[in-house]
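Predict the assembly for these two chains.
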Amino acid sequence: MKKIAWTLFCIPFFLFGCSGEQTVEVNNTVNNETDVGVREVINNSNEVYAGNAIFVDNQLLVAVQAKPWLDYKKKKIEKNLKKQIEEKFPDLEVFVSADYKLFWETQKLLEEEDEKKISDEVEKLKDLAKEET
Amino acid sequence: MDQQQYQQIEDKITPPTPYLKNIIKAFLIGGLICTIGHAITYFYIIFFDFTETTVGNPTAATMVFLAMLLTGFGLYRKLGQVAGAGSAVPVTGFGNAVVSAAIEHKTEGLVLGVGGNIFKLAGSVIVFGVASAFFVALIKLILVSMGVVEW
């Protein structure tokens, strides 16, 4: 009985890994073209399983989540994505991060409507991402 | 009875060490401690202004603090009996080493007792930690200046 209960307890932990579909969300009230373009870039990267993109004025904040086994090359993934997006939209000021904090906060920003608040928050997150200590 | 005979008898009587069982226990409980640590990491990321780069310090501090409380209440000893290396290798083992030494030498006074002995066990961890960090940084500096890797 104890053994069965233990096995049943353990099964969900093995199944968590199976629920994997790429989710990309973009907040964009201005331009449809950039929206699709950014979505495409994130979708094409097969090292990333989720991404949020926030547009404010001519700034773009992209927060992505690297696949579990690729966590160690986050910096490389960030660099690649940044390069790709900048190539596509040279007039945008792009900031890419694979940090969970930025992903969590941008998730909240997607539902935020107040433009001023979003802009402030994006500035704050950029500063936070540069923090080393 | 010479020494060899004695050794033979000793080997016969001593129960075999259950290596596999110990390893599994250490793996599971060490993993559990690390899972708790990861939960604390996410707690700090979500509710405070910490990123994945900066969250390591408060997490380690919290884990050490928890281990100190458990040591003070005498619970970490029981955990150590079951888990062995699983409870000593994570950073909680460091907290345990500091506090248990402090408690042990409390009767000898605050300065020469606690102050002199608090890092008796953990001191080597700090010394080798600092020394190896220095050498790793030196190697990385050489590699960066040679252009093999980036910072």
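The two ends of chain A are 50 Å apart (CA to CA). Residues 115-130 of chain A form the longest helix (16 residues).
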